[in-house]
Amino acid sequence: MQSVSRKANAVLRPLASRALSTQSSVDPSEYGSKVFVGAVADKYLKKQGESAAILDDPKWPVTKADKVAAALLEWGKDSNATTITHWFQPLGSTMVRHGMSAQVHNNMFTFTKDAKPVYSFSGSALIRGESDGSSFPSGGIRATHTAGGYTVLDSSSPIFMRGDTIFVPTIFVSWTGHAIDEKTPLLRSMDALNKEGKRLMKALGYNVPGVVPNIGLEQEFFLVPRDAFARRLDLQLTGRTIMGKMPPRGQEMCDHYMAPLNPHAHACIAEIQEECFRLGIPLRTRHREVAPNQYELAPAFGIASAQSDQNLMVMQIATEVAARHNLACLLHEKPFAGVNGSGKHNNWSLGTTDGINLLNAGQVTKASGNPIVFPTIVAAIVDAVDKYGDLMRCAIASPGNDFRLGACEAPPAILSTYLGEDLTKFLEEFKAGKVGEYKAAKKMLSVGVEGVAPFEVPSEDRNRTSPFPYGGHRFEFRAVGSSQNVSFVNTVLNSITADAFSRFSAAIEGGKKPQDVASEALNASWKTVFNGNGYSLEWRAEAEKRGVWRIDSGVEAMNRLSVEKNIKLFEGLGVLSKVETEARRVIMLGHYVGTVEMEANCMVEMIVQSIIPAVKEADQDTAALAAAAKAVADKLAKVHHEEDPFKKASVARELRLDTMEAARKVCDEAEAICPANLWPMATYKDLLFLDANQDAFGRTLCPRNP
């Protein structure tokens, strides 16, 4: 490592002392202090003759907008936050747009006749804004000569404050009314689920005020030394290493999982939690993951629309706070080959607006007085997975999941569901005509130590190989990628469930017995239930025999979005029109092509400008490297030659998984024999081992000059 001057040490010392201090500075009373709900909102709305209770009415933007705007202005003035922005979720943002959101910041003042600024903010400005729809990915819905786009407040997600700015969650639609964002279809799907959920419950004799999807998101990520990150063009521009040989040590000893947090990472994560705490985001769980330098943060459950917003902010805050700690936060699904990648487990549940969890058998049976409600709901969900497994696969087809699904670290690309032996047995008896209350069995374990009391455990083990297991009170969509915006994921889950609820309701309303409807659906979709090892080769063969959805190619999964049955699903529920669905297919494929293009360009530049000169200096042959770079460039030219979105993305996938992987092998072989002091970029060893590689100041100890 280069020597560091005394002056540099003095500059770094405050960072080091902060990094090693992990004592939280947040008072419990500060929870949600930057969110305009509850007591925070009540203080300012009372001055307008209202209370925070009006924010619980989804129609307040129509009836109370001016009063809420006036209250927000006073809140902002008291907090030195007199800038406001409409905050929305553009399409095609994964791994390319910081924060995966869009925003225009406006000061809340106007001018008097004598040109003096005065604070002013109206209800109309709060509710609606305007932007250039043609400058965002729209799949052809918008163009430069038809560019109108409008932001409209989403009352289901709370307004919040960060720094000097008040953030207003909004949707984004075109002048024609087409959705050109991630949020609008999610809200439509939630309305459809509410409508069909209430309808089915009524058909089962259980009247509920409303049905909402609740989610909890387990966010995985890597924290790597920022100075090493700065010496990796690929990490900086694409989020993953497109080359790099494995170091002598990886994750073979399982020694990283839930180990004590690295002190530098600990301080960073604590600061992320503190900032999120004030924003009303309760990141209750933090721990190390399986791979070196990999971590997880997880919040409590909440309504899907607000949780999708909050997860975007968590990812943005993590990225920004990491930089302050001389770290880089990597959200890509597979930033490193040879060690586990990152996911974002989407725990999904259904609840009534009066607090009943519809996937909690005991709770819903007690509330409804009808033991048939729970198995009917589960039957509808299993039926939905069976009919629309291709859509579920499409929803998780992020570019980063190309390298992760089915790699013994994430579920395979086979869309099955795990129910566990107890629930499976119960449903088999239910299909056979037996009606009774489902009660999950539990058992007691004793470790044979006098000082350790016997303890209760669920009767079911955990199955980490299933993409969509039932976990008791929820289903967990485990295959979601870490970098994804989960709005579309939950749009799909809500929509396919609403469709199943609608079909069940129609049959029951038509005179069929609920048990017969649920049993017939279970019999038809039972092939989707699999409680075994999803990683096994035997399951792949068995799944094919059963006819379970299996789509290995993310590109093919994206292309399934606009097949006739899926267009009909979305149109029938009012979630997406045919035009909107086709536009999303084009955007997804284009986003994939753009991602691969950036990776290929980085690879060629790194080989030509960095690796070949270094290998030449080591007096080693560079012919194979030059040939590899040419092969990548030539294949990229073929990508550019294609015009059809699907064909273009298919060639890009070949470039990524065949041509570039072959080039990577050549580069990694060169790294293996090149003297360490000549290798021009940070290695996996430099990037993956904070515990061994960082000094007290957070600097990376490297055996070479940067």
Structure description:
By secondary structure, the protein is of the alpha+beta class. It is built from 23 helices and 17 strands. The chain has helices at residues 6-20, 38-45, 60-63, 65-78, 123-127, 183-203, 226-229, 233-238, 263-278, 304-324, 361-368, 373-395, 421-431, 487-509, 514-525, 537-546, 554-559, 564-573, 578-617, 623-641, 645-673, 684-688, 690-693; strands at 83-88, 102-107, 109-111, 117-119, 128-132, 148-153, 160-162, 165-174, 211-225, 283-288, 294-299, 302-303, 327-330, 344-352, 442-445, 455-458, 475-477. The strands form four sheets. Strands 9, 10, 11, 12, 13, 14 and 17 form a seven-stranded antiparallel beta sheet that branches. Strands 1, 2, 5, 6, 7 and 8 form a six-stranded mixed beta sheet that branches. Strands 3-4 form a two-stranded antiparallel ribbon. A hairpin with a 2-residue loop joins strand 7 (160-162) and strand 8. Helix 9 crosses helix 10 (304-324), helix 19 (578-617) packs parallel to helix 21 (645-673) and helix 20 runs antiparallel to helix 21. The longest helix is centred in the last third of the chain and has 40 residues, at 578-617. The protein is globular. 51% of the residues are buried.
